[in-house]
Design goal:
By secondary structure, the chain is an alpha/beta fold. Helices cover 35% and strands 24% of the residues. An 8-stranded mixed beta sheet has the order 5-4-3-2-1-12-13-14, with helices on both faces. A 6-stranded mixed beta sheet has the order 8-7-6-9-11-10, sandwiched between helices. One of its GO terms (molecular function) is sugar-phosphatase activity.
Length: 266
């Protein structure tokens, strides 16, 4: 494969293992790819607080990361913000009030803080999974003081589908509503997707979509997989993600991204 100039790589269930780490093998392959002059962009639904440790573990320098599935671009080491678009505060508060009325678990992200009503099974699971430190604020969580970077609903997959359908009826033209895991439903700023933000970054670098390889596993990766000239889904990806991919690599637990890069790039 020739003239690949940029890699866009999702973290959870794509590059990162279930224990929130990357292997030494994956790290070494990424360093070798970077040494060939190929740009590496993390593209994740995570906040800076939880994406930064993975970026540091990758040891790829102070590179920009796409966070909140496209709503924020921030450098790994320095934390410099290069782009930010938050959810409209009035729309966010409508959604939060709906969550309160229906007793849906929701968490809000403002200024790199994870805001939660109170400690629950969902908040403990999220903290354990990605290392985020929740701030418990009671009913204040249902009234955002400013536009949040993201809202996240966590529930069993069937309930998530119900919440997704309910929100789409009222807010489909006001926010991006996308699943990042079967039990995670993200609410992001309108038109802020991984694909749109990646396209802007690629254009600024003077590159073309056909020079981009994107790796992903979930619904919030589809936009960047459709944008990239080469789209690779990991073996553990959702079926609708595999359907838009050009190739399938081994799972995140089997260092699938690194194996694909070693075979096709190095």
């Amino acid at each position: 494969m020739t003239d690949i100039r940029l890699l866009a790589i999702d973290l959870d269930d794509t590059l990162v293992r279930e224990d929130n780490t990357i292997s030494d093998y994956t790290r070494s392959i990424l360093k070798k790819v970077q040494a060939k002059g190929i740009h590496i962009v993390i593209a994740t639904g995570r906040m800076y607080q939880t994406a930064r440790p993975v970026g540091l573990a990758m040891d790829i320098g102070d590179l920009p990361m796409i966070l909140f599935s496209g709503g924020l671009v921030q450098r790994i080491e320095s934390g410099e913000k290069l782009f930010e678009q938050t959810v409209d505060v009035s729309v966010a508060n409508e959604i939060l009030q709906l969550a309160k009325t229906n007793d849906w678990y929701v968490q809000s992200y403002i200024d790199d803080e994870l805001l939660v009503h109170h400690e629950t099974e969902e908040s403990r699971m999220y903290e354990k999974g990605v290392g985020a430190k929740p701030v418990y604020i009671g009913d204040a969580v249902y009234t955002a003081p400013k536009g949040p970077n993201k809202l996240l609903f966590i529930a069993q997959p069937q309930k998530i589908l119900h919440i997704e359908a309910s929100l789409n009826k009222e807010f489909a033209d006001k926010v991006e509503i996308v699943r990042s895991k079967p039990n995670f439903l993200e609410i992001n700023s309108m038109n802020c997707t991984k694909g749109n933000t990646l396209a802007h970054m690629v254009s600024e670098l003077g590159l073309k979509p056909e020079q981009v390889v994107a790796f992903g596993n979930s619904q919030n990766d589809i936009s960047m997989l459709k944008y990239a000239g080469t789209a690779v889904a990991v073996a553990n990806a959702d079926d609708n993600v595999k359907a838009v991919a050009h190739e399938i690599c081994p799972s995140n637990e089997d260092d699938g991204v690194a194996h694909w890069l070693e075979e096709h790039i190095l």
